[in-house]
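Notes continue from the previous slide.

Worked example: a multi-chain complex. Inputs as given:
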Amino acid sequence: MDEFYHALKVSSKTCTGCTHCMVACPTGAIRVRGGVATIDAAACVDCGMCLKTCPRRAIFVEQDDFNRIFNFTHRVVLLPSVVFGQFAGEVSEEQIFAELLAMGFTRVVETDRSVEILAGAMREYMSTRDHSRPFISAFCPAIVRLIQVRFPSMIDHVIPLKQALDLSAIHARRQLEEEGASPDEIGVFYVAPCAAKIAAIKSPVGEEVSPVDGVINMDFIYNKIKMGLTRRERSAVAPVPGAGYLSPAAIAWTLSEGEASSFEGRCLAIDEIHNVIDILEKLENDEIPDIDFVELRACDHSCAGGALSANNRFLVIERLRSRVKASAGQSRGDDEIARHAAFLKEQAYLPAKISPRSIEKLDEDRGAAMEKMRKINRIMDIIPRVDCGACGAPSCRALARDVVQGKAKLSQCTFVQKMLLEEGLITPAEAIEIAEKTWGKDRFNNKK
Amino acid sequence: MEFNYHIEGGDFSRAGSASSEIKKILKQLNVDSRVIKRVVVALYEAEVNVVAHAREGEMRVMIGVDVIEATIADKGPGIPDIALAMQEGYSTASPRVREMGFGAGMGLPNIKKNCDRLDIESVVNAGTTVKMTTFFTG
């Protein structure tokens, strides 16, 4: 696969090219061109840092048309636990389920109901492959992609399993088919808390196609449920059949420590992508010995901090913790999914390898790469190393790299421009023209 | 291409920073990720050795099209018996150093395992020079 789908899009109308996202991007995927942020598809890992940093909401997550669900007779909505965390305590789970049915879904399935089966498969995998320690969870799609582009030597440590989202989708299909539905009548839609999960569904890593048919953004579903609740404020909501039981471990799975607390040995839980990069650097150097398992999540406070979360992450966590408590007090089980455990375990392995796709290399040919590195170092001696971003690249080094790769001109550097002007090598009009290429046309016409 | 780094003895908080720089360079030069890993693990061990035992040291790294040659020369106590130091588990590190997770006596054996050629020269009470060579292909 050469092209990568990304759910993160820039609205060229709203974006002012302010460079906030460019500086925040952990893979240096963003450049400002023509006054607008542009994202390099090969380098983007869909972590959503750009969206969270944007002061103007110019970066958004593309989603499928909601009405697509009506192309299917059986409309399954896959609900991650964090959805419940979006609502204040007085909104009951039954009310949320009922709203989802009212808006057109025929079945509500909790994504995390297959967590126990997944955790079992992970345990089994880890017990048979001692040499692959430390094991890295494939839970967060942004992290899997980060490892592909920046830490390819760590790929063999990633546990090559599908996630609860895939297993629950496979199970929901299987169950409906058992009940007599034909496969093409079943549509499974996932409520996504972040851009990475959407990208994982649209262009999956390690599998051909995702078992999920479409994606709905969590903030969109949140608004829709909220709207329904407001209109129906006084009418009683009947309990919804099939509102399944989730174990405490399953509810907490997507929170920080959710995975790490489920396994034996020395397990670490790291959230927020810069923290993750830090730990991956150390793991890559073998600096931390004797680690068995690492849970790595791109968002601060894991999925509670997802880019499409409508509520404050700490309130999301609070609500989920109280759900964990309530669940611990029950002695129910999920017989339906347990019945399919063997089948799902069989399906759990990713059919294809996770492939490396390094973005760091300057050239395929090592001699050429060395020549480029020498040029970069020479450029670094000229430019000021203040990382001001005015050239449209996140740092002086990034500009030097772009210049050597033929993606930018050294004259984009405002410092260099001053030198060229002083020496009379360019005219003031030419300097403005160069700046307009980065900052956008008419940026210097302040005659509004 | 040549790269030079200074290593400060006793500064454990920064141990590994020179090896990390080399790692970044090798990634840009499209060296196979498994080879990078071997090189970096060996360099890291050598760097930590300087930090743990010597007053200071210099790391000089020469990178060619298909080879990396690193020379780590330190001013320190030197190694009286190199053959003994090459044995796994042999360590002269102080308890304080061990508490920080270093000094398990795996340093030199680990370097040998992770490079293609290793030369060690040492003068007691003067310093140690470790020279390691790794080929990128084959």
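Summary box: Chain A has three domains: 8-61, 66-347, 366-437. The first helix of chain A runs from residue 20 to 24.
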